[in-house]
Description:
Helix content: 40-55%
Shape: elongated
Distance between the termini: 18 Å
Number of strands: 3
Largest sheet: 3 strands, mixed
Strand content: 15-25%
Amino acid sequence: MTSDERTGWAKNRKHLIELSKNNAEQLKIIESAAMTLCLDDNEPANYSDTALMALTGDYVKAKILFLFNFLMQVIITQNGSTNHRK
């Protein structure tokens, strides 16, 4: 959701909040976090693949897994590769 352009992001966020009180509460918790820990099921073959994944999201399945509005994200992949986004 955070990789969408601003108008789409705002529309999707509003829709999620309107769906249920629980969604609103969960978004509040997520948005107030100082950092995120991303457990990813990819198994990058080398540091270049790990870095690309950290910069762009899930480069294998062409979907974005990370929340780009956080100051810090720690990414741990299935094969134990780690990276972070600042």
